[in-house]
Amino acid sequence: MSQAIGNTALAYARVWHHVDASDRVLGKLAERIAIVLMGKHKPIYDPSSDCGDYVVVTNARNVKVTGKKAQQLVYRHHTMFPGGLKEIQYKDMMRRKPDEIIRQAVSGMLPKNKLRERRLERLRIFSDEDMGVFRHNILKRWEDGTLPPRAT
Each residue of 19-72: pLDDT tens digit? Predict the structure, then answer.
């Protein structure tokens, strides 16, 4: 029996991706971020293992929605007290916490299982261009909002 270990350590290594959310459509951006967080862009993808990468999103304040969603979209959460259902309009949420809009959209695109919270911890969202110390970790950038083509 062979004791050789292949390149799996390199395949499982986590890479930092940078995404500029300026003028991107929220749903399409969230879908691509979710694919990277799950690791579906890697050839070693397995639904039961957590092999995704880190994603840093900048300019979350400039993300766009299509149609009448800017007027119709409502975010709801409950305080767990009787009558504690809170509703926040999209425009108010964009003014107060623009990063939470992208976080909730990506959360809705991820599978609802035990790995969901761990995957969301690898998502870093900033409302403006400044990403602090995370800029030193970035290895891949998405210029047009799509994933780079996979080398075969």
Answer: 999 999 999 999 999 999 999 988 888 888 888 999 999 999 999 999 999 999
Helix H or strand E segment including 102 = helix 98-109
Amino acid at 55: V
Query: What's the whole-model pTM score?
Result: 0.85
Q: What is the rounded CA–CA span in Å between residue 52 and residue 122?
A: 9
> Alpha-carbon torsion 11, 29, 129, 87, what sign?
negative
d(CA 24, CA 64): 6
CB burial of residue 29 (10 Å; 0-12, 13-18, 19+): buried
